[in-house]
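User: I'm putting together notes for a lab meeting next week and I want to include a structural view of one of the chains we've been expressing. I don't have a solved structure, so I'd like a prediction I can at least talk through. The sequence is below, exactly as it appears in our construct file.
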Amino acid sequence: MPKLLLATTNRGKIREYSSLLHGLPFELVTPQELGVNIQVKEDYPSYEQNAIIKAESFARVSKAITLADDSGLEVDVLGGEPGIRSARAAGETAGDKERIEHLLARLNGIPLEKRTAHFKCVIAVARPNRKTELCYGECAGQIALEPRGEKGFGYDPVFYLPDLGKTMAELPLEIKNQISHRGKAAREAYHILDKIAEELKL
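Assistant: Thanks for the context. Below is the predicted structure for the 202-residue chain, given as structure tokens.
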């Protein structure tokens, strides 16, 4: 079974992709498992560019079909911030807790109905010497007044979904994958990878 490299070290993402891509005739592997240890600077101004450079860099070194993503949280009242800098908004070494605290401090005093936001995700599927393909996903919600839930990762504890009355971190993985930005983009990627499998006669 050929390998599909998930170009991330984020355990939450690996767990989600393992579920989202289940059923494809590929062995999902991480950079650590392949012994690929490269640093890719994700400092481009768009999710697309960051996903592409990461996927293509890892595909070039590993010689494997590679999936990489870039995602972010865009808060309307903050003019779309933190956006492309979501992971670094509270500093280069900040963890999830610090990022959430930083975001809530910026939104202090703003009522829930004015805290509309979107999660966005772009997935790049790269193959050596082939054109990289892109997939898109988006999920609308609001920024909660305080964190709730123990599941998920990143900003999930403060991403509130009015229709469900829960934050992303309160949802079982199966439900989150149905509605999340990453879930939507991954369903597009699934079709692309399924076609690649057909080409390879897997």
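A couple of points you could mention at the meeting. The beta strands are 3-6, 27-29, 65-75, 82-83, 116-126, 133-143, 159-161, 166-167. The two ends are 8 Å apart (CA to CA).

User: Perfect, that's what I needed.
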